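W.,

You were right to be curious about this one. When I first looked at the sequence I had no strong expectations either way, so I just let the prediction run and decided to look at it fresh. Below is the sequence, 508 residues in total, followed by the output.
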Amino acid sequence: MIDPILDTRQADDAPAYQAHTINQPIDHFPHSPRYAPHLTSTFKQRYFFDSSYYKPGGPVFLYIGGETSGESRFSNLQTGIIQILMEATNGLGVILENRYYGGSYPFNSSTTDELRFLTTEQTIADNAYFRQHATFPGVNATLNGPETPWIMYGGSLAGAQTAFTLKTYNKLFAGGIGSSATAYGTLEYPQWYDPIIKFGPADCISRIVDIVDKIDEIIASGNEDAINELKDVFGLGVLENIGDFAQTISYPIGGPMFYPTNTWQELNWAPGHGSEDFYHFCSNVTNPSPPASIAAIDTQLSKYTHGERWTGLGGYASYIKAILLPQCESGDLASTDDGCFGLSQNASYWADITNSGDRSYLYTTCTEMGAYITAPHHGPSLISRVLKVPYTQQWCRWAFPAGNYNRIPATPDLHQVNKYGGYDIQAPKLALIDGGVDVWLDLCYHSHFAGTTRISSDEHPSYLIAGGGHHWDSTGIGNISAEPDYIREAHLWEIRTVRRWVVEWEGY
């Protein structure tokens, strides 16, 4: 669930907000055996704020940073959802960086023992503590008291954390918006590919499904000559592990964990805020007039599949060779160095205890969230069916060996997420907004598996953006009236909802 829906501009190019810090307790639960031995120390948690719209009496909008640095979220204060809501309500916007991300690490490294305080319940307790203790230098007001309405916002994992915070600490907040809030924990999540199959370019999808079926037929045959020739077609003959091969060729569509190129998830409605890599890939697969050398690849493996043509294989393979393989700068494609394609088998790489967002995110995946992206058990697939739970679980084992005080579970402890309500999570003044073509939709409130039709109400507002992707409402362009109607109406709904919360909070 790594969340690459960030402004595609480099964070360093964005107007800077000063980083402030709060002394946040490392351990909010001194009596819970889960965190023994306990610590009484604090860490410096970073936050950034924009008071340019603020007027006395206005609300505070707490944007939960999620699995990235605070700087990567600056666009939300500039033209995105927080800017939209600040302008509409004379509010102040603040980005709170999650513990174990950006510059907000409790320790100088991330051993298994040191990561034991990276849990959902500790993270949402940070949000509650920040709401009660935050200060805003230069703002001529104290805003952490009960007289000030605070409203949360988060997208994706941060959206789930927003929902969990409202569920647990509801009386502290006037409301909260969880956008694409992945509130349901499950071990494997093959449904990630469902929106792509349903809504992607039809000829591109059908060709990939057919190619994957043929790939899996060759793999299942055990014919080493055929398997080696298959890998050679993609320029990946040096990869010994068939899972590494399958993962590498899945990258343009979306692989189990890595995102070396942008996928369906990174599409966005606003120019300059997403990437169309996915469509560039499909245009290669569906090219009606490829060069003869590429077109010939479509029949190269036909001898292994009863003479059937692999339509689009040449375009698929040429994209892998032209776009992906050059990312391995050493040229040793099987290398376990960063950027090469044997990396997933490098146990020492995974065990590196250096602080990083990738390591923190993997820890949360392995311990609580799950949602390993895998091939489906039945039906059409966009990735090889060798990509199953064990392929991802191996990284958990390598990355987090048992410590003195902490060991990861054999598979994620999904109860730590689902205890908040899963698909059916609700809390007073919690708004849940999702996108109808989001790859993460089936972990969210509007999931196809939720079982009941979602009807919005003032107490439990909800909104499904038809044609919307992964927390697309978080993006803005500085002019709501110029937005596409399906985004404009979602933003206007959020403004109306928030204004109602602010009015209602006056009678706290």
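Here's what jumped out at me. The chain is about 30% helix and 10% strand. And, maybe more interesting for your project: Confidence is low (pLDDT under 50) at residues 1-14.

Coffee later to discuss?

I.
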